[in-house]
Amino acid sequence: MDQSGSRAATGLGTYVPRLVDQRLSELFAQLPALLITGPRATGKTTTARHHATTVIRLDRPAEAAAFRADPDVALRVQPEPVLLDEWQAVPEVLGAVKRAVDDDPRPRRFLLTGSVRADLDQETWPGTGRLVRLRMYGITQRELAEQPTGPLFLDRLASADIQQFHLPPGRLDLRDYIDYALRSGYPEALLRLSGAARQAWLDGYLDQLLTRDAQGVLAIRDPARLRRYFEALALSTAGLAEHQTLYTAAGIDRHTAVAYDQLLMNLFVLELLPAWTTNRLSRLIKTPKRYLVDPALAGAALRLDAAAVLRDSDLLGRILDTFVMAQIRPEVEVSTLRPRLYHLRDMGGRREVDVVGEVGTGVIGVEVKATAAPNSTDGAHLTYLRDQLGARFLAGAILHTGPASFALSDRVYALPICTLWG
User: Fold this and answer.
1) Domain that residue 86 falls in
2) Contact of 363 with 154, CB cutoff 8 Å
3) How far apart are alpha carbons 232 and 235 in whole angstroms?
4) Do both 247 and 285 map to the same domain?
5) Are residues 324 and 402 in the same domain?
6) Counting beta carbons within 10 angstroms of the beta carbon of residue 360, is it exposed (0 to 12), middle (13 to 18) or buried (19 or more)?
7) What letter does residue 239 receive in the DSSP assignment?
8) Same domain flag for 341 and 203
9) In terms of C-beta density within 10 A (0-12 exposed, 13-18 middle, 19 or more buried), how is residue 194 classed?
10) Last residue of a domain, which of 85, 108, 135?
């Protein structure tokens, strides 16, 4: 099932409202400058254009020249709000924004967008106290369904009310979810391309990421080693692979692996989900889970199609888990509950919860299962967490590939994955 629909037929001419639009408007109504960050090609510029009067493309030499010569004057003459796209191409513009905001802190003055953490190269980051960050990710199924507003999934789960969850039109099965995961959340690939063209775009994106983008952040002596490490991460996405397992598979040492992890996080394509700790539970491991931000990157790195994923039960679970996180992660950025996400696993591997969310003083839990008929056994870890935490446990969900929502036990629900956007 392909939801590209009419947007694919018209290219990128139709704007897909994003989850961050409302949050951006609310922040920009009171703040003078916002910095929109996130992976390359996730629609940051397209979204920012909808909130700007003037757009300056600093990756274009003709537009960048005036800002290199005298950024203060060049900025002063622009009708506001001003979008400074790819600001890292002319990092001097940050100082001009700082000075402009210091002189006049009116709201709705400047938006900055960029893909690479160029601020890491700045000895002194001038944006502190002047630029508020807002992170964007790829397009979610909720955004495709044109439902960027309304109660978010984790917010609904915290309410402990199964009536808050609804199914979207059409019946989905496991193959549909894997297809959704492998087609990506990158607007260009998702909305305009399909089949071999989409795969070629993803291959090219990965090549750009691991060569030119990586070289711009860290001097890479051997791009082939970085690619091998990325492939090892793709095989273990949503997993707890020991660092030694990853760097041994890639043929590199620990020092290089640590540097590669930081590099890929700086490029916004790798995120770590920290381990949850509590004095209510003992013998919990402290190793974070590693997630690629888009499951299609794993597909591109490993040359996987849906049939290949369905033949490998380990990869199936990882791709499905990574897909679910790609739907949840953008909601965290805009949730008024401001949840903090973790994972839980004890040292013996007997208790494991894919996502533990702290919501104020309460806790919610989410597990992802590649089954169409979850039962009480599938919910055992969430039930255990509930029993250990008592009233602090708000609710838990088993996200599955079947068609029905139902209660497994007190405050533990079985919900189809599509209720994320239903």
Assistant:
1) 19-135
2) no
3) 5
4) yes
5) yes
6) exposed
7) B
8) yes
9) middle
10) 135
Determine, yes or no, domain membership for 194.
yes
CA atoms within 13 A on the CB side of 161: 6
- 3-state class of 370 per DSSP? coil
**Domain-embedded: residue 7:** no
pLDDT digit string, tens, across residues 96-139: 999 999 999 999 999 999 876 555 445 445 666 788 999 999 99
92: nearest Cα among 114, 67, 124, 115 = 67
Q: How many domains does the chain have?
A: 2
Q: Which of 104, 135, 166 is the last residue of a domain?
A: 135
- What the block records as the tokens of 239 is 């997993």
Structure tokens at 308: 């290949």
Residue pair 291/271 in contact (Cβ under 8 Å)? The answer is: yes
Residue 12 domain flag:
no
Residue range 227-268, pLDDT digits in tens? 999 999 999 999 998 778 888 989 999 999 999 999 999 999
Contact between 181 and 325 under an 8 Å Cβ cutoff? The reply is no
Q: Identify whether residues 160 and 99 lie together within a single domain.
A: no
d(CA 169, CA 422): 8
Calpha distance 92→118 (Å, rounded) = 12
CATH classification of the domain holding 70: 3.40.50.300
229: left (phi over 0), alpha (psi -120 to 50) or beta: alpha
Rounded distance between C-alpha atoms, residue 182 and residue 235, angstroms: 14
Q: What is the 3-state secondary structure (H, E, C) of 241-270?
A: CCHHHHHHHHCCCHHHHHHHHHHHHHCCCE
294's tokens: 């888009």
Q: Which residues contact 324 (CB under 8 A, 6 or more apart)?
A: 354, 366, 368, 399, 417, 420
| Co-location of 276 and 371 in the same domain | yes
What distance lies between CA 150 and its chain's CA centroid?
19
| pLDDT value of position 131 | 87
- Amino acid identity, position 148: P
Residue 10 in domain: no
Residue 292: φ, ψ to 5°? -70, 140
